[in-house]
Write a structure and sequence with these properties.
Layout: E1 21-24, H1 29-41, E2 45-47, H2 55-65, E3 69-72, H3 83-87, H4 89-109, E4 113-119, H5 149-161, E5 167-172, H6 186-192, H7 206-218, E6 223-226, H8 235-245, H9 257-261, H10 276-281, H11 288-300
Parallel strand pairs: 1-2, 1-3, 3-4, 4-5, 5-6
NADP nicotinamide-adenine-dinucleotide phosphate binds near residues 27, 172 and 175.
Length: about 300
Amino acid sequence: MGLMTENGSTLAGQEASSLKFLIYGRTGWIGGLLGRLCSERGIPFAYGAGRLENRAQLEADIAAAAPTHVFNAAGVTGRPNVDWCETHRVETIRANVVGTLTLADVCRERGLILVNYATGCIFEYDGGHPLDSGIGFKEEDTPNFVGSFYSKTKAMVEELLKNYENVCTLRVRMPISSDLTNPRNFITKITRYEKVVNIPNSMTILDELLPISIEMAKRNLTGIWNFTNPGVVSHNEILEMYRDYIDPNFTWKNFTLEEQAKVIVAPRSNNELDTAKLKKEFAELQPIKESLIRHVFEPNQKTSTT
Ligand SMILES: NC(=O)c1ccc[n+]([C@@H]2O[C@H](COP(=O)([O-])OP(=O)(O)OC[C@H]3O[C@@H](n4cnc5c(N)ncnc54)[C@H](OP(=O)(O)O)[C@@H]3O)[C@@H](O)[C@H]2O)c1
């Protein structure tokens, strides 16, 4: 909801000058992009210095920054990938469970909204939501994917955070940005793999959706949100676009889920999320394939169109 003015009309959101964001994840991919966006838009912000699991440090950050909203882009996702979490369980719990819950709790005590970049990798296609059916998981659905320790703990935290009315949970999936040199970018990852599976998935185009998360804070939105572009795109569809826009000589090899299972430790989540709730709030939200072309492939195009 926007703010009510004296004559009863509703402002779309707060003016940049009346906002102050406190952001966790300064050295991270999403946290870095978010800070850059705030700078570009003239929104005052500070990065949190505290570790998420250290309550006293979080309280000191909030006292120093006096924010209107807090954003959490901090957490562990594992390096080189989520398999790291299988063998670093306590470290994963410390940041993603104890840390995230501590931050939510401190924010609640201070009456602050916490916009939390969470994950949609807590679902997998099932009988009620089959592959290629167009039936996506909704915000109120209970997570059904606990195949990896990372996803299992993220699902637990999401469930607990439902009790915090000050939290806006954004279910991010397979994030993509226009920076095709970034090794965290899903496109960069799959172009560098020796072999890739080919499964349609919901994905998050950060260039389009990070500005929307800022707008969500301005509107003081809370609760759970599937935070992906509408529809699904498969690995091969993305790689075909990569070949057509970036490198005409690019080739790749596919393998099956069974073959993939032999080279990874924990199973990965594949799913479609229902984006009707986000689309209702942001009518301009673009379908995944259109957003990919507009925000990623056209700005990076290296091939000739003639
Ligand atoms: N990237 C993905 O594939 C993906 C997919 C879905 C959802 N997400 C969500 O988005 C969030 C951010 O992802 P990202 O890709 O930007 O991650 P990232 O690049 O790995 O960055 C993580 C950030 O979290 C900080 N951090 C880690 N543990 C911390 C702790 N205990 N206290 C304070 N800061 C801590 C790191 O700081 P230090 O360097 O100081 O440790 C770093 O700044 C993740 O937590 C995840 O829930 C990501």
